[in-house]
Specification:
Helix 6 packs parallel to helix 9. The protein has 14 helices and six strands. Strands 2-3-6-5 form a four-stranded antiparallel β-sheet. A two-stranded antiparallel ribbon has the order 1-4. By secondary structure, it is of the alpha+beta class. The radius of gyration is 30 Å and the shape is globular. The protein has two domains: 94 residues, no CATH class; 297 residues, no CATH class. A hairpin with a 2-residue loop joins strand 5 and strand 6. It is found in: Membrane. InterPro entries: AA-Vitamin_Transporters, EamA_dom, EmrE-like.
């Protein structure tokens, strides 16, 4: 007992809890170690590295250096437990905790980058599509964005050994998902683009988080609070300032079904319903596999309409295609659809639908930035103000969840 008492006087003895403010001392008075002394590096469930030293003592006192990656001036916490002549010490350097905090910050930044990536790809895909649409036709581009991208997603999911949908309910949910989120959304979008400006159409489509917030509140009891609701409204205002062009209306010739704004509104509602449906679909099928199949199934009717509509690509304009046009189509299909939709709907099954959908406000911002860089489109002072308003709106939508 005398030997163990001298050891405990220099270190400290506890069965489970280290003292929180103790300073690390490089030399701790412990009995001399036998050749069986070993040090084991390990990690706890909190991802902190620890060094466990397990030793067998002899009959004399001496000093033992506790291993640590920190300097002698660093603070540290450690436990020493003795049983007979065996001593075991566990050291947790503060420097290791700091490294783990940095790793957690990097992981959080990576998660945000993944969350934002679909909106980046959608925005840049708009720029890539701009010069291809007149040469290929709207319905063909819509179908090309879906079918090849869907096949690519299905192939990727199969390579990861994800299960194919099985059963009547699984395929029925995918079919309905495809009709709403793929066929209707892309079809309404194509009709709207023929009748309205891209700026106003983008504003209407990117207002769909309002519908998602209402549907998520009704179906999943999600709530964003007053600040979040105000942020959604402010986001729509920001988009109006960012991209709304000068419009003129001829009331005498106005027709609802001839209005591009009406078709864009229907497209926005289709996307909102599709965003909510993905949770239901993922109950019966793998989300990545379901996303791929819904794109393939939803793109087939659009391809048929493109042929029946005699889109330019089927009437000889294929000869006018350049390598840049081909690359633009591939980019819109692979990045603008396969990767972006896969990440988007996978994230929708893991987090808040309202938070995810609110980030669609970033799509027109990316489109405007890269439109300026690659197409020479410029910002007006009003557009710059709109961009600032949009960023503030995104913060407001996520404010409640950040506080929690």
């Amino acid at each position: 007992m005398g030997l163990w008492s001298s050891a405990s006087a220099s270190a400290f003895i506890t069965s489970s809890h280290p003292l929180p403010n103790i300073k690390f001392r490089k030399h701790v008075l412990l009995p001399p170690l036998s050749p069986s002394c070993t040090s084991i590096y390990s990690r706890s469930s909190a991802k902190h590295r620890f060094i466990v030293t397990n030793c067998t003592t002899s009959s004399k006192n001496t000093d033992m250096d506790l291993e640590s990656s920190s300097s002698s001036s660093s603070s540290s916490s450690f436990d020493c437990v003795g049983t007979g002549t065996d001593v075991e010490c566990l050291v947790s350097p503060e420097s290791e905790k700091e490294n783990d905090d940095k790793e957690e910050e990097e992981m959080e930044l990576w998660e945000w980058a993944v969350l934002i990536s679909p909106f980046f790809f959608w925005g840049t895909a708009m720029v890539a599509m701009k010069e291809v649409l007149p040469k290929a036709g709207t319905f063909f581009v819509a179908a090309f964005r879906l079918v090849p991208a869907g096949l690519l997603l299905v192939s990727f999911a199969a390579s990861q050994r994800r299960k194919l949908p099985s059963g009547f309910t699984a395929w029925l949910s995918i079919l309905l998902f495809a009709l709403v989120d793929a066929s209707c959304f892309q079809g309404f979008l194509a009709q709207g683009l023929q009748r309205t400006s891209a700026g106003l159409g983008s504003v209407i489509i990117d207002s769909q988080p309002l519908s998602v917030a209402v549907l998520a509140a009704l179906l999943f009891e999600e709530s964003i609070g007053l600040v979040g609701a105000a942020g959604l409204v402010l986001g729509v205002v920001g988009l109006l300032l960012l991209e709304l062009p000068a419009l003129s209306f001829d009331e005498s010739n106005f027709s609802l079904w001839g209005s591009g704004e009406w078709w864009m509104f229907l497209a926005a509602q289709s996307m909102a319903v599709g965003t909510v449906m993905v949770r239901w679909v993922s109950k019966y099928s793998d989300p990545v596999m379901a996303t791929g199949w819904h794109m393939v199934i939803g793109g087939l009717p659009l391809a048929a309409i493109s042929i029946l509509n005699h889109d330019p690509i089927f009437t000889g304009s294929l000869k006018e295609f350049t390598s840049s046009d081909v690359l633009a189509l591939l980019y819109t299909s692979i990045f603008g659809s396969a990767i972006s939709y896969g990440v988007y709907f996978y994230s929708a099954t893991k987090g808040s639908l309202t938070k995810l959908s609110s980030l669609t406000f970033l799509t027109p911002m990316f489109a405007s930035i890269f439109g300026f860089l690659y197409l020479g489109e410029t910002f007006s002072p009003l557009q710059l103000f709109g961009a600032i308003v949009t960023v503030v709106a995104i913060y407001m939508v996520n404010y409640q969840e950040t506080v929690e």
